[in-house]
Amino acid sequence: SMDGAPPPPSPAGLSAFVAVSQLLGLTLLATTGAWLGRYRGGVAWHSPLQFNAHPLCMVLGMVFLQGDALLVYRVFRHEAKRSTKALHALLHGLALVIALVGIIAVFESHRAKGIPDMYSLHSWCGMAAFVLYLLQWLLGCGFFLFPGASFSLRGQYKPQHIFFGVALFILSIASCLLGITEMLLFKISDSYSHFVPEGVLANTLGVMLVAFGLVVGYVVTREEWKRPPLAEELALSMDFKTLTEGESPGG
User: What GO molecular-function term can you cite, just one (predicted)?
Assistant: First the structure.
């Protein structure tokens, strides 16, 4: 758009899908809180309830905030790239801090109760997701944020960054599903098969995690919903590569 002209509207359907994702995300958090509060005694630090901080932090950090960080480039379509980039990195960074609190909670809780660590499939997938997520964040900041790699290096790394961003989001949700199943088998193995309310609520949480992942995944992989480069970004890219005569800022 020309200077002073209103930005073009968002593509049809994008706002609705983003709204559904946020509704699902907030419902996820409420359902996790309801499960822990209603059936697991709530959440408290340095107490027998410390473990319960783990599922809450993981759903908030590794699912909700990570998902929202992926959506930033679709939602903030007309803001300066640098601001959008900073918000993307900030949300991922916040997700990492919250996830770290969740990991500390589970290790401290295990130590207090004499439970062994890192033997289950859930713990292996979850730790892999966290470590790779941290690495992805550090590489992303190094390549794109402070002070940024060369234009050609960034261009080479960008497809990997995008692929692993989506892959780690999927791995995080899969780890949550494994964690929910493990918790139910530990806590209510005798009654789980009788469709008790706690089992039904936790299963519903699992289905909502999948739904949130699908909606976010759909939004971030739809080609026509990608953030269009702004006129000044296209002008900047001309310094690095020659654009063909026929290309225009909107092309």
Answer: oxidoreductase activity
Residues 6+ apart with CB under 8 A from 37: 43
250 phi, psi to nearest 5 deg: -95, 0
Q: CB 132: neighbour CB atoms within 10 A? A: 15
CA distances from 180 to 49, 195, 207, 233 (A): 16, 15, 11, 44
The class of domain 44-227 in CATH terms is: mainly alpha
Tokens of residue 85, six digits: 């980039």
The structural domains of the chain, with segments of one domain joined by +, span 44-227
CB 221 within 8 A of CB 227: no
Query: How far apart are alpha carbons 202 and 186 in whole angstroms?
Result: 13
Rounded to 5 degrees, φ, ψ at 35 are -60, -50
Q: Quick: pLDDT tens for 177-224.
A: 999 999 999 999 999 999 999 999 999 999 999 999 999 999 999 999
Return the closest-CA partner of residue 71 out of 221, 171, 224: 221
